[in-house]
C-alpha cells in the first residue's frame, strides 16, 4: 500500500540539496535575453529605433512586434476577447508592457542593449483605477463590445426567484468589500530557455501547464503545435501564475529563432512584480437578505473587477468569482451585475481560487454580520444554509454530495469552538469562513481530460508519464504512489516523467486542483488496466487463476513470477499474441447539452487467439528500452493525424528502433538534453512510431478520461 | 581579474570583474547551481552560502571581497543530510527553490547551536535567525520544526 502513506518526495535528495535543475540551472552556453518595457501607463509608440542595440558587439538579436505576424494576439479565451500582442504593437497600455527584446552574450549586455533602443512615445492620459476608467468621456483603452467605456465584459444576471426571496426576507445587511490585487511572488522567477533548431523550438520553461504554452507559442510564431516541444524541468512554485502563458516563453522562442542560438530569458524579481499577472482586484458591493430563521433568501451584488490593461484570463476569473454567489449556499434568488473594467495597469491573471476568494470575502463577512444581527452563532448560521445535495445549484452546477456541514461540524469539535468563541483574551479571536472551489473547466477544448501513460520495463521499473507539471505540489510523487498502489510495486521502483510534450500523452496541466483529481485518476486507470494485463499473463505462467500483485511480482499459492520476467516473457510470446492493432474504437460520451464530457477510446488489446508462429514479436527491439507501454491516448490532433494508419501513433516510448528517423536520418537520442556547446544536434522530429512506419511493437494503449462528471458514482456517461 | 577562492574545500581560480556577485561566480563559473538566485538583492535568502562559517547572501556579496573559505549547499551535503531528511519527512519544502538556502542557514545555526531554553524560546530563536530565508510554499512551521528537531537530536547525540 503506498497511497495514504507519508513518503518523501521522489526527488527529495536533489531538491533539498539544490542540485535539481530549474530552468536557469540548465547547463550549456546560452545567449541571455532581456526585455525593454514601457515606462508609461498609456502611450502611442511614435518611433522605435533598434539600430543602436543591433550595432552593439555581442548583441545577437533584437525583436519587436514586427517579428510576429501582423495583428497577432495571444489566444487565451479566443476572439473577440484576445487583445494582447506578444510585443507592443504601436500602443502600450501599462507600465512594464513588453516593447522589444534582446538576446546578447551576457545578461548585462542584453540589458544595456535594451537601454540603447530609442523609443519615442506620445503619452496619453491613462485611466489607472476602475473609477477613473468608468468616468464618462474617459479615454478608452480598447474597442470593446459593451456600451460602457472601458468595460470589457458585462454580466447582468438573475438566477432563481429573486422577488420571492426578497419578499420572504426580514433582515438585510449590505456593504462594500475590496479584495486588492496580489502578486504570487513565486520563489523561482519566471524563466524560459529556448532552443530553435530547424523550425522547431524546444522550451524548458517554468510552467504548470506545458500544453497551453505549446498552444500559444505555436500560434504566435505560426508553426505547428508539435513543433513547439516542452521539456521537463523543475518548476519553483506556481500558485496559478504559471498555469497560463506569460510573455517570457514566446519571447525567448522568438529570440532564439532570430539569433539562431539558444536563449535564456529570466525575469528579475522586479519584473516578476511589475509584469506578471497578479490576482484581480475585486470591488464587491453585496446585499444579503435573510429571513428570521437565518436562512439566506436573496443576494444582490454589484461586482467590479479590475481587468488591468488586457483581458488575459479576466473574463473567466470574473465568471468563476460570481459563481460563488449561486453555488455556496441556497438563496431563492441571486441578482448581480459584474463588470470587467480595463485600466492602464498590469493585466490580472489566474491565482489560487481564481476569483472565488474575492467574492467569498464579501459573502462570508456578511454571513458573520447577519449572525450578529440575528443573535446566532456564525457557524450555526452556515449550517442552516447548507446547499442541498443532488440538485442543480442556482448557477447551474450539478451538485452531487455536499459535505460542508460535516466539515463545519468537524471544525467546531476540533477547535472547541464554543469555548474559543467565549474567550475574551484581548488580541485573540476566532472566526469561520467557508469557500468552494471548482476543479477543472469548461472553457477549453478537452478541458477536463487528462491522459497518462505507464511503462513497465524488463528490469522491473515502472515509469509514469504525464503531460502536466509539478510546480512543487508533489504531483510526481503522488502519481508514483497511485501507480505503485495499483501495480503492487514499491514506490521507489516508480519513476515519473512529466511535461515532455514529445513523450507524454495529452494533459492540460496542473491547475485548478486538477492534477491529482484528473491526472491521478488517469494514472490509476492506466495502472489498473496494466495490472489486469500483467495478472492475466502471470496467471498463464503460473497455471492458476488465483493470482495477485505484490512486491513487484505476480504471486499465487503455487509460486510467483516477477513483473520484470513477465515483460521478458511477453516478448517471447508467439506473434499471434502480439498486441494486434484493431481498428480504434471510439466511445464518445455526450451529455444532454451536447457538450463533450468524456472521451475515451480503447485501442489495441492483445488478442489471445489465432494462428501460431514461432517468431518472437520483439525483433525490432534492442536492449535499452524493453518496455511495455500502456499509453494513454494522445490528443485528438495526434490521433487525427494518424488516422488510417493503424500501426501508427500512440506509442510514445522511446525505443531503439525509433532512435533514428529514416526520413531525416537524424537522431533523437539527445532530445531531452539541454542545448549546450557539445550537445549533439537535436532533431527529435522522429519522435514516435507515427513517423517511422514500423510495427509499434509492444505498445498497447488505453485512455482514461478523468472528467469528474463521468467517473463519479453518479456517472453520466 | 583572476582571483583565488576556496570553495567547498577546494581552491579554484575564478574570473571576477567589478562588483560581480559571489552567486554569479559560483553558478556561472563553478557550476554550483544549488545557490539559487530569487531576488538578486539580498532579501530572500535563496542564495545563502557560508563565508568564513557565517551565512551570507551571495547575490549581494561581491566575489572580489571574499577572502575566507566558501561553502555552498553542495559542499555541505553530508553535514546537512539528517537535516534534509527531516525537511523531507516533515514537508518542510515543496518546490524546493528556497531549500538550499534554508539548509545552509540552518547548518550555520546548528553549528553554533541553539541556546538552551524552553521549547517556545528555542523556536523563537530559530524563527528569528532564519527570518532572512523566505519560503513561499510551506508557511515555515515545518521548517522550524525540522531545525528544532535536528538540533535537539544532535544535542542528545553529543551528550
Mind explaining what this structure looks like?
The complex is a heterodimer of chains A (717) and B (159). With 717 residues, chain A is an alpha+beta fold. Chain A is 25% helix and 22% strand. Chain A contains 18 helices and 27 strands. Chain A has a seven-stranded mixed sheet with strand order 3-5-1-12-9-10-11. A five-stranded mixed sheet of chain A has the order 7-15-14-13-8. Chain A has a five-stranded mixed sheet with strand order 20-19-18-26-27, covered by helices on one side. In chain A, strand 9 and strand 10 (200-205) form a beta hairpin. In chain A, helix 6 (210-221) packs across helix 7 (248-259), helix 9 (314-323) packs parallel to helix 10 and helix 14 (475-487) packs parallel to helix 15. Chain A is flat, with a radius of gyration of 28 Å. The two termini of chain A are 30 Å apart. In chain A, 53% of the residues are buried. Chain B is of the alpha+beta class and 159 residues long. Chain B has helices at residues 22-29, 81-90, 99-112, 119-129, 141-158; strands at residues 2-7, 10-15, 48-51, 54-57, 70-71. Chain B has a three-stranded antiparallel sheet with strand order 4-3-5, with helices on one face. A two-stranded antiparallel sheet of chain B has the order 1-2. In chain B, helix 2 crosses helix 5 (141-158) and helix 4 crosses helix 5. The N and C termini of chain B lie far apart (48 Å). The model of chain B has no long low-confidence stretch (mean pLDDT 95). The interface between A and B is medium-sized, with 32 and 35 residues.
